[in-house]
Design a protein that fits this description.
This is Gp37 protein. By secondary structure, the chain is an alpha+beta fold. The protein has helices at residues 4-18, 84-95, and strands at 23-26, 41-52, 62-75, 107-117, 120-134. Helices cover 18% and strands 36% of the residues.
Amino acid sequence: MATTVEIIDALVARLQARLPGLLVEYFPERPAEYRLNHPAGALLVSYLGSQFAAPVDAGIVAQPRTLKLSVTVVLRQLNGRTGAVAVLDDVRRALVGYRLPDCRKLQATAERFLGQTSGLWQYAVDLATQGMQIEEDDAADSPILTQVNHEEQP
């Protein structure tokens, strides 16, 4: 399975390709210190965590995994074709149904208003996708095929 970082990177790349008029970056490590320097706005991608289901009985540990991701929309304008409300639609159109590496198609799970401060409107679009968490197999513990016989044995 793709790593969590690879999955987040793919989400960022998708948004950059589909919404080139906005800055797309990872959610800041210090949100209180975040400063929007882009003239229109930004999309901030974050990982909200995962939930794991019971393992599938397959002789190895293989667990269904639901990954939760969020895109925070930070814009200087609320309404109109380039405002936060319209960009929410653009984000959903770009991501819902998109298949991230080693995952099922993305689904929207929630959307919420985060607030308005210093002329910046903020909303969050939450998304989820499913994948499988599979144990790494230590090949040294497994039998190794050393001979192949193409003849049938009675």
